[in-house]
Design brief:
Blueprint: E1 2-3, E2 6-7, E3 15-20, E4 25-31, H1 35-51, H2 58-74, H3 76-87, H4 91-109, E5 119-120, E6 127-135, E7 138-142, H5 148-161, E8 165-169, H6 176-187, E9 195-197, H7 205-209, E10 214-220, H8 223-234, E11 240-243, E12 249-252, H9 258-270, E13 282-286, H10 290-302, H11 322-337, E14 341-344, E15 363-366, H12 373-376, E16 383-389, H13 392-400, E17 409-411, H14 415-424, E18 431-432, E19 451-452, H15 457-463, E20 465-473
Parallel strand pairs: 7-8, 7-10, 8-9, 10-11, 12-13, 12-17, 13-16, 15-16, 17-18
Antiparallel strand pairs: 1-2, 3-4, 5-6, 6-20, 11-19, 14-15
Length: 486
Amino acid sequence: MLIGGEWTDGTGGERLDSYNPFTQEVWGTIPQATEQDVGNAIEIAHRTFRERWRHVNGRDRAAMLNRLADLIEENAEELATIDSTDNGKVIRETRSQMRFAARNYRYFAGYADKLQGNTIPLDNGQMFDYTLVEPLGVAVLITAWNSPLPLLANKLAPALAAGNTVVIKPSEHASLSTLAFGKLIAKAGFPDGVVNIVTGDGRIGNALTANPLVRKISFTGGLPTARRILESAAAHLIPVTTELGGKSPNIIFADADLNAAVTGAVAGVFGASGQTCIAGSRLLVQRAIYDEVCRLVVEKVRGIKLGNPLDETTEMGPVANRAQLDKILAMIQQARDEGANIAVGGAKASGPALEGGYFVEPTVIVDVDPSLTIAREEVFGPVLCIIPFEDEADAVAIANATEYGLASGVWTNDLRRAHRVAREIEAGLVWLNTYRASYVGAPFGGTKLSGHGRERSWHALLEYTQVKNVMLDLSAEERDPFAMKL
């Protein structure tokens, strides 16, 4: 682990195995941090912030962030290979994610020297008032196993640009790329103690989230863990940004470009083996084109090539770990038990190159009743539910009939309808005639049970800063000490 600029094992001596989901073999181990390790990392981050980092100017922070982006690009192949080996994502995806991560650091580098306040004209001309935009202090950043470094970039880039120090906790299921990334921190010029990395499972959760020295928590992951974090952080009123799951609707109207829409539907849920919070796992199709869309989707899904995630031609790799494999297969079986009509897939994938891995067949369930469990709960796997709808009002009603509200898609050539539906959908993100597209300058986050707060764009800076008001009395006149000065 990286604590105070030093690489160290956990004080308890325990290590956890990291499995390659393609082979089911152990290919690395990580330290299991103890509460003492976590407390030490937070204390060092706090001391570094107080004594050094908060005095570093924005220009110098920007230079470090830009250098970090350069280093990510220089080491992109290694980092992408680690992630693909650790979580099963295909290499063509993890490579692009490294480019995305580098762009994130460059984007926020541009903000590092622009965190400026305002002067405020007051009614009383003898008073001078202004604001300062300041960092919060120690930020704890907790990432998920599906996209370790891109998710980290969403948090770390604005946190460092704003002048905070951090303690990073990656998922125990995919920590190796974060540790490899940690080796770039000192090379980029960051002082020891600014960026710290602890690893391990949920046993250290409370030590991370209930420490009174922590001033901010950002978490990406599942709803049950988010609830525990919020409960833990509440004791010290630590603000928490959460980016959680989704059951995102992808809506195809009868006037849409069907080829583009079907491709977008497949990309929306089978890209990354469906292990993405923005997965368009509910495909809503207008009745007039329903049969044709189902046929086209099933045809495309049958052609998806499963295999080694490091093979350039592989389109879908294994799911990331055994627990996820078991969960997905159990949810598919539950759908069967509830009467679901599975058009393709629905089982653990088999074949000459697949037997050793955690592969799930790309699965399409048609004629889905929105009340089915598979249509309401997040699967986080390559499973698509296709649901028919009658008209615009029906589509919006079905789309919003969920506790989640992260992403959504609308496919139509009717410009007015596109914007009407975008306004009505309860989600933090609406794609129009596209799906699963990202830009670092576009805000990202959810509503309802999909989370709170925003990542990326200048909105993310607000998550890691606080405003201080400074008021100066320029007058020399004596005042009434028992009345507020206005």
